[in-house]
Amino acid sequence: MLFLLIVSVMILSAFLIVLPPLLRKHPLAEADQDQRNIAIARQRLAELKEQLQAGALTQALYDEQLVELEQALSDDLDIQSQAKTSPTGRRRGALAGAEASKSSGRWMAFVLVLAIPLVAGALYWTLGNYQSLSQVDQPAAANQAAPELEQMKNMVAGLAERLKEQPNDAMGWTMLGRSYKYLQQYPKAVEAFEHAYRLIGDQPEIMLLYADALAFASNEQMAGKPAELVFKALAMEPNNVTGLWLGGMAKAQTGDFAAAMALWEKLEAQLPQGSEAQQEIQVLLAKLATQMPEGAATQEEAKPATAVSIDVQVSLASELQKSAGPNDTVFIYAQALSGPKMPLAIVRKQVSELPLTVNLTDAMAMMPTMKLSNFEQVKLLARISKSGDAMQQPGDLIGVIEQVALTDKEAHKIVIDSQIK
């Protein structure tokens, strides 16, 4: 029964596809092409809005690229509309043949209503195998994305051809570079952004796009021209999100971890709190901190300073005793009330040692420029991690004291009494 139902649905679908064109004529190809052009333009508009919101695109350049996008779409739709328009004599010829086409379509429709089920049944009876029905959907799903990718490649090729005739179109070269980068054709992206850079000049956005493409074309290495462009852009826009990211990469690749951390800390402070991007930066900062040479000192550390420390008593709530194993890691640390979440001082223990008392000091800082003595008030946390990861994860157990003055010398009691969702 299931097989017969499937066959019936397929035959009905064939009727719905074949019969309507026989009864009436529609310019489907042109309409479909228009819809594809509109869909691609909408996708590009969404990308422009995301870049504007992320700070990677200035309002002025956003407006220019929006005008370019509207003009390109207008040109595409105008071409299609011209294809639909025909001279008066041709229109009259089409009208004259309408009746014959209509009657021919109706006659053929009746034939197909009988022929499709009979031919399909005969072929299946001879060649078919109903057990293979469960396997036919997998190849189709694997090939769904191919037409869209091929269509985009054709559009990019068309844009490249147009720019050969209009080599002074800076926005066109920028769009071509972005397209090549999306297709992971990095050498071609470099060439396109180089053209745009020559036309636009020292504009931070185009410099960073050019630098990023150069880095990808060189196996993500920032040394040389990419780093030069990035720091030139940062000199013009010190808070540019893309510039801070690429600048940190450039410094980290040269081994200047302190400079890389300074750039990424500035970036981390600008990203939305709790966002995936901010969490990724925090992970990178934690890794960089482990690569800093021990005993690395700054000029501030050489100056005499008053010793700063905080006593913290940590215990685990009785209702969560069964949720933690004796070998689970306990992180006890202090954070700044605002800004980067890098611990100012941190101690690592095990659940088997609870309850316990620790003394947090400047000596426990992860980096010299982020330590307790730089702040008047801090936030205290104690967290149990089954994975031992320094970044908090869903399922970790945690206790928090939201605000503590460093002048308060009393022991501060933290009870780990909640679970991170």
From the coordinates shown, what is the CATH architecture of the largest domain? Sandwich
Poorly predicted regions: 79-105, 133-138, 295-306
What can be said about the biggest beta sheet? 5 strands, antiparallel
Tally of separate domains: 3
Task: Give, in spatial order, the strands making up the sheet with the most strands.
Answer: 3-2-5-6-8
Assess the beta-strand content as a share of residues.
5-15%
**CATH homologous superfamily heading of the largest domain:** Carboxypeptidase-like, regulatory domain
- Listing every helix as H and every strand as E from the N terminus to the C terminus, the arrangement reads HHHHHHHHHHHHHHHEEEEEEEE
Query: Structural class of the helices, strands and pairings?
Result: alpha+beta
Number of helices: 15
Q: What average pLDDT do the residues reach?
A: 76
As for the CATH topology of the largest domain, it is Immunoglobulin-like
Helix fraction, binned, reads 55-70%
The geometry reads as flat
Outline:
By secondary structure, the chain is of the alpha+beta class.
Characterize the structure shown.
- By secondary structure, this protein is an alpha+beta fold.
- It has three domains: 2-83 and 100-127, no CATH class; 202-291, Tetratricopeptide repeat domain (Serine Threonine Protein Phosphatase 5, Tetratricopeptide repeat, Alpha Horseshoe), CATH 1.25.40.10; 307-419, Carboxypeptidase-like, regulatory domain (Immunoglobulin-like), CATH 2.60.40.
- Helix content is 57%, strand content 13%.
- The chain has helices spanning 2-23, 28-54, 59-84, 88-96, 98-127, 137-142, 145-165, 170-182, 186-200, 204-217, 225-236, 241-253, 257-270, 276-291, 299-302; strands at 309-316, 329-336, 345-350, 356-361, 377-385, 397-405, 412-416, 418-419.
- Strands 3-2-5-6-8 form a five-stranded antiparallel beta sheet, with no helix packed on it. A three-stranded mixed beta sheet has the order 4-1-7, with no helix packed on it.
- It starts with a helix and ends with a strand.
